[in-house]
Structure formats: C-alpha cells, structure tokens
Sequence to fold (290 residues):
Amino acid sequence: MARGQAANQELAEVLNELWRLDSNRLKPGIDYIISLQGRAGYVAQGSNYARDRARAPLFTYVNQDKLKSMETFSHFINLLDNYEMSTGVTETVTSEELQENHKFLDAILETEVMKRAHQYLVKKSQSPPDITHFKRQLYDIWFRLYHRDRSGGEDSCGFEHVFVGETKFGQEIMGLHNWVQFYLQEKHGHIDYKGYKARDNKDTPDHDDHVLNLQFSWKGLVKPVGGSFIGVSPEFEVALFTIIFLASTEKMTSVVVKVDEYILELVVYRHGRSIGTSFPKLLSSNNRDL
Fold:
C-alpha cells in the first residue's frame, strides 16, 4: 500500500471514530426534519439570480430546546452573532465575545469527540499534549483574526467564515457551511433555500442524509453551491477540520474519505496559521443503491 493510501486509511479510521463518538449529533426525522424539494439549477458566475426549486424552507422542524440544552450547541449559538457580515469591515472583539470563544472551546474540549481528536493529533506530533496549549492552538486556528480583504483591518477568522458566513464586497457569499446557522438564518427570513445540488439522479440526497450540497440565497446574495454537514455537533466539525488542517502545510488540502456511508471530499484552505475555509462535498451516499 502506498504511503498516501496508508495515511488516508488512518485518517478515514479516526474520522469514522469521531463520527461514532458524536453523541450530540441530532437524529433526522426525530430531532429535526428537512425538506429537500427540487434539484437546484445552474447559476452563472457572479450572478445573484437562481431559480427557486424549493418553495418551502429546508428545515421543516428543529428541536430548539434540545439544541439549547446541549452545552456545545448553546455556546456555539452564542458565537453566531459576534461577527460583521462584510469583509473589509474590521471586527471588534469585546471581552464578552472573547469569553464566549473560550467557553465554546472549553465545552467542546470536554467531549469524547475532541478528546479523541486531541489524542490522535498528539500521536501525530501535530498538537501539544498539554490541554491548555492545545486550546491555544485551536484558538489560533479558528478564532485568530486576520485580513481577508487587503484594504481593511482584521476582518475575518476561520470560525466566522466557515460557521457564520460572510460577504465579499457585498457581492458574493463566502463560507456559511454550518447547518445551525443555516437553520437560524432561514428562520429569521434571511436565507432562502433554492434546492439541493446533485450531479445526476444517482446522487440525489435523502432527507436523512447528514451531508448535503445546497444552493441558497442569503440576504439577497446567491451561493450557487455550498456543502454542509446536517445535524452533526459543532465539536465534530471542529475536530474533523482541525485534523485535516494540521495534516498538511499546503495552501489547500483536499482528502476523499468514506465517513459512515458517505463518500466525502473534505476541503480545507489555510490562511497562515488559521483556517481560511473548510467544507465537505458530498460525492456519493451509499444508501442510494440499496
């Protein structure tokens, strides 16, 4: 077996372990219900027009009480309103927001998912064994502010881009790959789900799939396609993308792995010592052919 293949095998094993350990993951059809509706069409580069193939929202129901009762989710939700939507607008981080960042990291570090991820990263000599130092490393990867727009101040960070979403010059949506943010923005009327993206009829998604490629508009701007996990916990996403981020020093890392029944391409862009963006792309889901 080639070295790359062996490394990929090891990666697939740890990611599947994280999947099995994700006890905070919500159950489709019970804790939340999604309505996939139609298959989204083509959107021209730079255009903000998309035919709406989904009249209803993506999320029909989410058990919000359950979300708020889980510590990692409730801390995660507190972070979603801490950012300026537009790049080029300098972020101001209040001491309260700093505390919220730390509370979120403390909460996820208590979970089995993050403990396993830490163990793996220490074994690979990619993270310090000391938990305080590991937390500092996570902080740098996800919360350290940087310049995304050259003209402005420190206007972005990995967490904001991936989980909250931002706009570039008010013309295009960047990031926003998180289902909780999607659901909350949809509930507030800011997001309009346009339909799912699939290459052909063989990879049509199912309402109980935990990964989707979607098309949507957010505050009037269109995202032609965005990949997102659905129902998973924030600690699962942080663990998974941190492992892939630390696995390489390339500007862009992309790995194809089978996690549970999904064949995914996991993509991470680096911005110095931080995450520029990270997202899953669903390549296929095996339950189609059963």
About this structure: The longest strand covers residues 274-285.
